[in-house]
């Protein structure tokens, strides 16, 4: 049996107290053909050494370290660039989330069965947020029949735990088509960049849900997204304008762009106007 190569891309920063559990959950995957590239973003603690020591007993792990702190966005994009050149599939993984058995194998199965899919969506167990409890499966995304349906559903965020898709396995050939990903021009340049990346991926293929809980998302006060000011006018305007720009620049047909525009652009323009 042929097992397509999968590259796990792990971003790490100041994670010495908890990253071993994450690394162990990745190393425990039984899929026959995967490698791990971890990049420490100039941590101020012993994260880099902890990861180096772990990799000594795991030859499929490569540990890198940035010379200067790049931040989550640039560190992730740099890893994505490496991953898509080394494997047929890849996935970005935060330093504090835990993979369950079958995370890789189950997603590769659905991707191989659906060659038109851009990515697989793993079921997500939510830990630490009072308003997000239980499990998220994002079936609304995988049930989107047309590209305009998928894009619209993502933009309107009418999905419980839509960010599970960001943690899924991506088809490398599709990721190559969306790089580079521009930072927001207004507000926090990294604000909701995961949503923007998913929207760009949705231009190139379907999202397929595994309908199985395959990882645990750990939320805490130090999680990156917890630092984003979702009420900031600048951040809201920044993401709204970025979404509109990506739709205009997308490879979709004019008919598809107009269809999406009819559904979401009037609302986006109203939101932008209300923030000015």
TrEMBL record:
Source taxon at top rank: Bacteria
Cell cycle keyword on record: no
A GO MF label: transferase activity
Pfam families: Glycos_transf_2
SUPFAM superfamilies named among the record's database cross-references: Nucleotide-diphospho-sugar transferases
Residues in Glycosyltransferase 2-like domain copies: 9-122
CDD domains named in the record: Glyco_tranf_GTA_type
Keyword flag DNA-binding: no
PANTHER family cross-referenced by the UniProt entry: GLYCOSYLTRANSFERASE (PTHR43685), GLYCOSYLTRANSFERASE 2-LIKE DOMAIN-CONTAINING PROTEIN (PTHR43685:SF2)
Official protein name in the record: Glycosyl transferase family 2
